[in-house]
Amino acid sequence: MAKTTFSSKLGVLLAAAGSAVGLGSIWKFPYVVGQNGGGAFILLYLACSFILGLPLVMNEFQIGQKSGKSVYGAYRALRGNGRWQWLAWMNVITLLLIMSFYAVVTGWCINYLFEAMTNTFAQMDANALSAHFQEFEMHSLKVILYAVIAVVLTGAVLWFDVSKGIERMTKILMPLLFVIMLALAIYMLCTCPNTSGYEFLFRPDFSKITPQVFLEALGLSVFTLSIGVGILITYGSYMVEGQKVASTSIQMIALTIMVALLAGMVIFPAVFAYGFSPAEGPQLIFVTLPMVFQHMWNPALMSSVFFFLVLIAALTSTISMMEVPIAFLCEATAQRKRPLNRHQSAIIVSVVIIALSILVVLAPQLFDIFNALTSNILMPLGALAISVFTGWFAPQALYQGSPVGAKIYRILLRWVLPIAILVVFLNSLNII
Ligand code: PFF
Prior knowledge:
Strand content: under 5%
Distance between the termini: 50 Å
Number of helices: 17
CATH class of the largest domain: Mainly Alpha
Bound molecules: 4-fluoro-L-phenylalanine
Structural class: mainly alpha
Largest sheet: none
Radius of gyration: 21 Å
Order of helices and strands: HHHHHHHHHHHHHHHHH
Shape: globular
Helix content: over 70%
CATH architecture of the largest domain: Orthogonal Bundle
CATH topology of the largest domain: Hydantoin permease
Number of strands: 0
């Protein structure tokens, strides 16, 4: 069987950036920045992303590129035995759990896009919008329907080979996302009556930087860069011949940070300009912003464009999350008498995720449990394990740049990153 690859270096870059740029960058990043010292936090986040995030991103790409396999075969191929196979399973389970609620939220975005297009939010005030959101959330059947649409849309892209599905889609969607985001940020810059939003986002306040905030920056880097779940391993295995891991990783991180900052430059100037207070999470996207858009030129158009943008960001992330279990299934059954092909795997993974999403909708407490379990426990543990795997058990997958670079990289993977992640992990569990 021919090896699966993307057809261009740009394809890998945009698909990885698509995975990274998601709801985290839009509804979490700008708010966390504003809350934790603005420009000072941005510097810290940049440091965390480039000093600690970069080696982790490179490491995952490198594992995929060196082994040429998805998570199912990668650890086994590099280690020479199946002792690290639990990590492959952990990656897949983590992603299925993240998808179970991410699909629900992506479904909300689809519903809000339709509502924006039909001008449903016109004349709704804060209370009405808040009630409207709660009412929608309670309407289980509707929420399930939209979650199913989100999974089916993602599954439809993954039905095709990676170069025809993921690559083609992300090559259209990511530039579109970037252009719309840039256009909205410029629009805000030109029409915004005051600078409070920019001050909230950028004014550096170094007094807010505490060890706690440092941990927050590191945790945010891991989440926004989609580290620790094997997505970048899988995409690394699709890299074209001779693709440079270091430069691809740097470009991916730079793109992600740029989009996250642009998101902040769209959201907060608007929120502050019309006298609202900033929030994070669903409240920001589904209550505050629809209200803010009512004050702008052509509210129906502006809010439709915005929800379209959020939907693109979410879908390019769901694509990456579902690709990992699909590639896993194909590879795991390859030696069987009847191996599963991509189409069959895509259907199986979609059905499992739909079942999990229905569970999350019907038992809403699972939403918070899965969210906390994945972002506070499984993702940091995954990042820690992948770092230890290469640093201690699969040194042939270590970066081989200049001798000095390689040495620093090895120390980072063996000691610095595992310890840093462990501290974040214990902190998020309130143990330290
Ligand atoms: N990086 C995505 C975001 O910031 O929204 C979230 C994410 C995607 C987390 C994929 C984990 C993951 F496996």
